[in-house]
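FYI - complex with aspartic acid, inputs then prediction.
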Amino acid sequence: MKRTLIAAVATLAVSGAWAEYPEKPITIVVPFSAGGPTDKVARDFAEAVRKPLNATIVIENVGGAGGTLGASKVAKAAPDGYTLLLHHVSMATSPALYRTLPYKTLDDFEYLGLINEVPMTLIGRSTLPANNYAELTKWIGENKGKINLANAGLGAASHLCGLLFQQSLKTEMTTVPYKGTGPAMTDLIGGQVDIMCDQTTNTTPQIESGKVKAYAVTTTKKLTTPALAKLPTLDESGLKGFNVTIWHGLYAPKGTPKAALDKLNAALKVALKDAEFIKREEALGAVIVTDARTAPADHKKFVAAEIEKWGPVIKAAGQYAD
Ligand code: ASP
């Protein structure tokens, strides 16, 4: 009896302590460089989630190794609700790509909800002689062994997309890894690298301003964003079945108290209805998630299914890192 009472008082004290959460700034780790697509989503999301959480949000960029360095940092952080991870499809591709991953994707995180889905675009430096997809494949065929393909490291979305593209064309390019496609884009615009496959949230403004050439979209459906609507799909351009859409979600270290997780998920759901956030994402070709995957259990189920989906594709491409 006495023990039950003590336990009840202890539970109340814990939830009481968490009633005030958050009491200090929350850090969202972005596992890529500043200025790239994941950073952009994170900063816009932070702006939308700041109000419902009533907290200051700090973005910390921890780029490198295709997003696995930043993810590892959060997996090992104190589970106190003050360090979160905003990450993308790499959560699902890295388990197949890395022989040893410093965290367990499904065991070392609390899943907070999916945020958006983003198509990708195949782009090239503005000085490339190819002006459309057919000319691009011809140019690739004529320049075997000389083409540089930029990406954000093994496991990044840009890596996954570039890998599938090379596999579909049965060609190999020299990959140039960056800590994010923000700096990769700077080099593509500068002409230091030739082509890249990246999220529309990063490529749309550069396509619009003519700083890069755009060749195709990675979804099987054409896009409606004005700057992207004229682009063919890779699927209809000859790479039958090519279909890559990536997604971002929010995570906390395993063991974060439920009271904090509940508040974070409730705030995420409010942020996903923020008109300004929706407008910004849509203008860049991204779609805010509105279905059950905004809830922790379905978010985790979805990532588990994505691990199953991408594992065999990556293994078939024979790509590994230690
Ligand atoms: N998300 C990008 C990628 O996977 C990298 C970035 O956000 O900078 O390539």
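DSSP finds eleven helices and ten strands in the chain. Confidence is low (pLDDT under 50) at residues 5-13.
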